[in-house]
Amino acid sequence: MKLYFSPGACSLSPHIVLQEAGLDFTLERVDIGKRRTAGGADFLAINSKGYVPALELKDGTVLTEGPAIVQFVADLAPDRQLVPAHGTLERYQVIEWLNFIATEVHKSFGPLFRSNATEDMKQAARASLTQRLGWVAQRLAGRDYLMGSQFTVADAYLFTALGWAGFVNVDLSAWPVLTSYQQRVASRPAVQQAMHAEGLVK
Question: Most exposed: 6, 52, 75, 173, by fewest CB within 10 Å?
């Protein structure tokens, strides 16, 4: 398998899950602005949506969208318990988290990265993040991870999104539970491996 990524982008989430799953894979960096891969390929020919992540399988099939990729990868290594079993309530609770992070947290960061976003748009995004992150902090209270004591694919995604806060001046210190959660996830060997590979840590 090959993961197309951009350092620190949402592709970090499936990168972490691939490391956690202990699977063999390769990485190819993508210049999102130029839509070119490190090898010189037209990324739009690989993923016509034009953004990462994209996971190329051995048969050439390309799977896109982080929440789908992380579940696919986790199911390849069921012994790692990165997602609960199919058909269980817990599985759907992880999917619930993935959807919430994608639509309410990830998307709320978007305007803060766009140079053409107005101040009103940025203020609305910050207000949304304050509300959403406050709710997440409440749910994390007394837990190591989103589902309790077990790290899941949802934690890889939330950790990735929280990592963007420092780049857009979103102060997480109002929620100590979130900062301690970040530190806890960051200390995992697989997370360190993924971040090192992307040049995010030395």
Answer: 173
